[in-house]
Amino acid sequence: xxxxxxxxxxxxxxxxxxxxxxxxVNKMAGAEVPDNKYLEGGRVGEKIIQDHVSxxxxxxxxxxxxxxxxxxxxxxxxxxxxxxxVYKRNGKEYRVVGFADALDPQSKTxxxxxxxxxxxxxxxxxxxxxxxxxxxxxxxxxxAVLITANIDPNTWNDRTLKVRExxxxxxxxxxxxxxxxxxxxxxxxxQFKGGLDEFGKCTDRWxxxxxxxxxxxx
Length: 218
What we know:
A hairpin with a 2-residue loop joins β2 and β3 (92-99). This protein has helices at residues 11-19, 22-29, 37-54, 122-127, 129-137, 170-189; strands at 8-9, 82-89, 92-99, 102-104, 109-115, 143-149, 162-167. The strands form two sheets. Strands 4-5-6-7 form a four-stranded mixed beta sheet. α1 packs across α6 and α5 crosses α6 (170-189). The chain is built from six helices and seven strands; from the N terminus they run βαααββββααββα. It has a single domain (3-212), classed as Alpha-Beta Complex (Lambda Exonuclease, Chain A). It is of the alpha/beta class.
C-alpha cells in the first residue's frame, strides 16, 4: 500500500466532520457539489492577491500590501505549496494534506487569504484551526500572514483590505493535534449526524451540497 491508497484528510474535511458531519456521507456517496458563485468570486480575488504578492501582476488596489512570496500556486492543488503527512490514529493511517495560498521559504512565512462578507480579525486568524494545522504541516515556517477583505475586489482599498501577521507556535501544533484526533474519532465511530435535525434532515444553511444534499428531503 502506498500513501495514495490511504484515506485522505484535509482541514476542510476535518472541519466538516466537526461541524456538519453529514456532509461526509454526501462526499462518500459521490453527491454533486452545485455551482457556487460566492466561492467562484473568492477564487477570483485570491488570484489577484497571489499575482500581486508574487510580483507577477501588481494591483493598484493592493499598493499598501508590501509582503512578497516566492512560491505561489500555478495550478489547483499545486504540490509546491503543499504539505503531506502520514498520520496514525487508533492503529489506522491517514494521508493528511494542506495547501498554503503562498509560501516564502527564505523568510519562513506562509500566506492565507480570507475573502468574505466580514473580513477576519487577527484574533480569529490566531484561533483558526486551519492556521494551526498549517503550523503542524509546515513546521519549518515560523510566521503566517493573513490578507483579508470583502469578497468583491472592487471594494478593496487601504482601509478595507487588511494585512495581519502572527507567529507559529508549538502550542498551535499541540492544539491542532487534539482537534484532528477528535475529527478522526467522529469518522472512525461513524457519527455523521452533525448538521441534521432530530428527524435526520439537513439544517445547515452552508451545506456544500445544497439542493443535492442527500438529507435535504429526508
